[in-house]
Amino acid sequence: MHITKGMNENKEILNRLEDLIFINSIIATELIRITENTVGMFHGEEFLNSSACKPEHNLLNQKIIQILKKYQIDKESFNALEKHVLKHLQ
Questions:
Q1: For 28, which of 1, 47, 57, 78 is 20 to 30 Å away at the CA?
Q2: What CA–CA distances, in Å, run from 64 to 5, 21, 53, 72, 75?
Q3: What's the burial of 54, exposed, middle or buried (CB within 10 Å: 0-12/13-18/19+)?
């Protein structure tokens, strides 16, 4: 009985970690977009497009998706975030 309780607690901790990874992935990708939008407003789209930032941001977004995929968060949630993030990379 004691072992089962420990296993349930471990599963609960893993579930919480998965949720935190997912939530942090959303926050990270959206902050990148907010940064790009702010730069675009202050300096113009030409400045943003000619800087090294946009390709670097794309790589960061792809890395975030890879991390999320690595931990196989809920497939439906993963697919929704991946679709949303990759749409911004086009």
A1: 47
A2: 33, 10, 16, 13, 15
A3: middle
Tokens encoding 34: 């907010």
Burial-class residue 33 by CB neighbours within 10 Å (0-12, 13-18, 19+).
Answer: middle
The C-alpha atoms of residue 27 and residue 8 are separated, in whole angstroms, by 29
Question: Is the four-CA dihedral 42, 45, 49, 55 of positive or negative sign?
Answer: positive
Per-residue pLDDT of the chain (90 residues), as tens digits, is 466 677 788 888 988 988 888 889 889 989 998 998 899 899 988 888 888 888 898 899 889 888 888 876 677 777 888 887 777 666
Q: How many residues does the chain have?
A: 90
Please tell me the pTM assigned to this model.
Answer: 0.74
Structure tokens at 67: 């991390």
Q: How far is CA 12 from the centre of its chain?
A: 22
